[in-house]
Amino acid sequence: MEKMHYAEELVREFLVFRGFTNTLEAYETELRTDVGKGFQVDKILDLIFSLYVPKFQIDKLVALLGFFKHYLSSSFETTLVSTFSKLEASLLRFYVVHALQSNRRDKVVEFFTVHGPDLLQSSQEDWTQWFAIPYVKNPQLDPEFRIFFSKEWYQALHLSVRNFFSEIFNATRLPALLKISSEMNATSLLKRDITQLNIKLSELQALLNEKETQLRQFKSMEGNISSSSNLHEESTHMSKDSPETFPQEVQTEIGQDLVVENDGDVSREEDFDEVNVEHQETFLGHTSPISRCRFSASGNNIASASLDGTARIWTYDASTPASRNATIYCGTEILSLDWECKSDRLLLIGTSDACIKAWNVDAKRVVCDLNTTEAFPSVLDIKCSPVEPIFVSAAASGGSGSNYFDNLGFASLTVWNMKTWKAMTVLPLGEDPPAITSICFNHNGKILAASAVDGMIHMFDMSAGLQITGWPAHDSSISSILFGPDETSIFSFGSDGKIFEWSLQNQGQILWSRDCSRFCYPVNDSNYYRRDMALDANGRRLLVTSSSVRAPIYQVQDHLNGWRTLPHGAPITAVDWHPTLPIFLTGSADNSVRVTSLLS
């Protein structure tokens, strides 16, 4: 019964969601009557033998039998239908017998008057003699009817009806809706097992990393000892063969090299405690490194993008229907993702070939395919306004520089209308502006912040469509930018690995900073991935991407070290936080996306 109630709630929820009010009303009416009684044998027997027959509710009895005949005709073999027809005739005769035993010959006459024609036409049994029974003085003594008045016949009928319904209900194929509850329980057990295995795997990976680090240190120390020994031998040999010695500046230079080398050997990463994980789930659908991953506005859905040219929509909570799960093929590298802020209905996707796709997760199709100008093909970032039906795209022209940022070229910021799907305006950036790498709205959508490859932060008034201020924030390119939780500060993440929190009340004032360059790729690295960061719902924890298999989580406005995530199999290339819960996303160069729920 629990499965049945759960399935009924799912149907009711779907009808409400689609606005099928008339269908919902009819559905509720059907549930109240529930002719089939949820296919429970005892309830059906009580309905027949304790209600319909004793209370002379012949219309309801005929309707119930008709319902089951139709059900059997559409789902079972003809032999079962024939058997049920015989049971149907016996039940109707039992109704007649009970009416006569209760001295209600009027009910018998009424029965044959209303249903007599149907009995003569459709019944497999011969009812001819029974039309005379209301007028037989003592039918219980008549040889034609005597058997039907016996207790043995009634008990046999009752048992036959029970056995028949038990047999067909046990053979009934359960609808998919009724299997959902069982599948959810099975899925929960599997998730629990996966969580335990992931934790065990993480522990083993951490142990392996520790052993590999120790091994590298031993090899490095062995190399240093060998190098020092060779240098000493060579110096001794030269001093013996020649009275010349190294000049003072050469000796100093050699000494400095050794110090640098030794420093490199003994320097260790800052110690970070591992996060306390309540649950972790891994998605393995992509075939290339992850470029972006984002929670939806409600946090119920996840979108991830990969260098393989696909975007995927996932659900990680068993209570959330998986009907929105989808794979979107773009055919080219996906550079940006963002969800519509007011609902989970639309996902915007920006690519490297001047395309912006709007995906409707309910309809499971692209509802609009926009194109930026050919001069700006790389859609580096997309952000939806939290208030108005607009979004802004940051596109780059492309160039021919020596590293990733130099290759981005010039910038274009375009404001788009999400109702007409047309460009509204282009925000002014000046002549040949450096590429914009990241954009973000404040809480009311009136201010847009943009970061550039020249280290500048630009602020725009969206109502006027003009730049209102800006300042040089980094000596290098800026990869990511975020408004602080109280809207009085803004975070910037530079390509040099430096993170700053800037005051918006005292422009240029740094409120908090961290140097996470040890977690970052060199800009000219051929395997470079764009740096990203994300703040949790309270604005107290900052998660950043990492060239390591673990990502650091910094405590904002705190001098404590922070935490480190459980390890992936490769560097972490994309991050995000749940909008309300202590749950974060990590995408990796190992092609996986992980959802990690922290202990409170």
Automatic annotation (TrEMBL):
<dbReference type="Pfam" id="PF00400">
    <property type="entry name" value="WD40"/>
</dbReference>
<dbReference type="InterPro" id="IPR056327">
    <property type="entry name" value="ARMC9_CTLH-like_dom"/>
</dbReference>
<feature type="domain" description="ARMC9 CTLH-like">
    <location>
        <begin position="55"/>
        <end position="170"/>
    </location>
</feature>
<feature type="repeat" description="WD">
    <location>
        <begin position="283"/>
        <end position="324"/>
    </location>
</feature>
<feature type="coiled-coil region">
    <location>
        <begin position="194"/>
        <end position="224"/>
    </location>
</feature>
<feature type="repeat" description="WD">
    <location>
        <begin position="565"/>
        <end position="600"/>
    </location>
</feature>
<feature type="repeat" description="WD">
    <location>
        <begin position="471"/>
        <end position="506"/>
    </location>
</feature>
<dbReference type="InterPro" id="IPR015943">
    <property type="entry name" value="WD40/YVTN_repeat-like_dom_sf"/>
</dbReference>
<dbReference type="InterPro" id="IPR001680">
    <property type="entry name" value="WD40_rpt"/>
</dbReference>
<dbReference type="Pfam" id="PF12894">
    <property type="entry name" value="ANAPC4_WD40"/>
</dbReference>
<dbReference type="Pfam" id="PF23138">
    <property type="entry name" value="CTLH_Armc9"/>
</dbReference>
<keyword id="KW-0175">Coiled coil</keyword>
<feature type="compositionally biased region" description="Basic and acidic residues">
    <location>
        <begin position="231"/>
        <end position="243"/>
    </location>
</feature>
<dbReference type="InterPro" id="IPR036322">
    <property type="entry name" value="WD40_repeat_dom_sf"/>
</dbReference>
<dbReference type="InterPro" id="IPR024977">
    <property type="entry name" value="Apc4-like_WD40_dom"/>
</dbReference>
<feature type="region of interest" description="Disordered">
    <location>
        <begin position="225"/>
        <end position="244"/>
    </location>
</feature>
<protein>
    <recommendedName>
        <fullName>WD repeat-containing protein 91 homolog</fullName>
    </recommendedName>
</protein>
<keyword id="KW-0853">WD repeat</keyword>
<feature type="domain" description="Anaphase-promoting complex subunit 4-like WD40">
    <location>
        <begin position="430"/>
        <end position="483"/>
    </location>
</feature>
